[in-house]
Every structure is written in C-alpha cells, then in structure tokens.
Amino acid sequence: MKNDCKDDSLLQLISMTAQVMRSFADQWLKKYDLTLEQLKILKTMAVEHGQTQRSLCLVTGKSAANITRLLDRLENKNYVERRKNPGDRRASLVFLTPEGLRIREKVRDGFDEMRAAILQDIDPGKYEQTIEVLHLIKDRVENVSVDKG
Fold first, then answer.
1. Tell me, what DSSP letter sits at residue 72?
2. Helices (H), the chain
3. Which one of 24, 68, 103, 114 is most buried, counting C-beta atoms within 10 A?
4. What single DSSP character describes residue 42?
5. 3-class SS at 89?
6. Cα separation values, 55 from 7, 38, 114, Å
C-alpha cells in the first residue's frame, strides 16, 4: 500500500506534464494562427499525393465533421487545397499547398529547437529508461478492461 501514493503522484505528474505541454504548444502555435489539431493535419499531408478526407479521419482519429471543419479553416489560410478525385467524382483529394508546406516546416523547426532545449541536460540513460516506462504505462492503459475495475 505504501506504493499507492507514489503511483498516484507518477500518474498525476504524467497528466500535469501533458497538460502543460499542450498549453505551451497551443500558446506557441498562436503566432502561426494554428491549433494542434490543424498542425496534426498538416503533418500527415504529403506534398505530391492528395489524401481523402476519410484517410485523414483514420490517421488523426477525428470524425468526418471535425476533419471537414479543420480542412475548411486550413483551406481559408491557403495551407491545403481540395481537388476533384479522378477515381471518385463524388469525393475530393486534399493536397498541401506550398504555403502549407512552408508553415509546416517552420513550425517543425521551431518545435525541434524547443525539444532540444527542454531535453538538453537529461542523461541519455535516464531518457531511454523514461521512454520505456512511459511506453509500458501507455500499453497497459490501452489494454486495461473497463469491466475489470
């Protein structure tokens, strides 16, 4: 039972860290007029090949209505464009525009710099161990049956 308090604080710390990171990313992305959800779409887009909205739903885990709304906003910013799908006249393909590629790369470079600054003094062994532990926790949470609790 002594370990329960430690376990609670570990899980609480993971949760708080995720919240702080998301809040920081949201604030940082404001200067690019982007949200994390919009960035996720841009990150999944290939430059040469269009994607269907359905494939974007599958990759991002978003509903069709959410993807449509996100794409509308990204299209208004000239980051993506929809074109008719030659294989299916009822559907369209979504392409990353040159401006979308530019902003995606700029944001990625900024996040890479921040990641390096945040992790710069962390011992590589501790880093790898932390990654392993977090993967274990994530896998166990995904595999826990709600009915068992």
1. H
2. 2-29, 36-44, 53-60, 64-76, 98-119, 124-143
3. 103
4. H
5. strand
6. 38, 15, 30
pLDDT confidence tier of residue 1, bands split at 50, 70 and 90: very low
The pLDDT score that the predictor gives to residue 109 is 94
| Mean pLDDT in residue range 60-85 | 93
User: 22-34 pLDDT, tens per residue?
Assistant: 999 999 999 999 9
Compute the distance between CA of residue 62 and CA of residue 43 in angstroms, rounded to an integer: 14
Greater pLDDT, 120 or 91? 120
CA distance 86 to 96: 18
Region 29-48: mean pLDDT is 88
Residue 52 and residue 26: Cα distance in Å, rounded? 27
Distance CA 127, CA 118 (A): 12
Least Cα distance to 40 among 78, 66, 18, 14 occurs for 66
DSSP state of 94: E
The tokens of 61 are what? 């885990």
Cα–Cα distance, 73 to 70 (Å, whole number): 5
Report whether 70 contacts 37 (CB < 8 A): yes
Is residue 92 within 8 A of residue 53, CB to CB? The reply is: yes
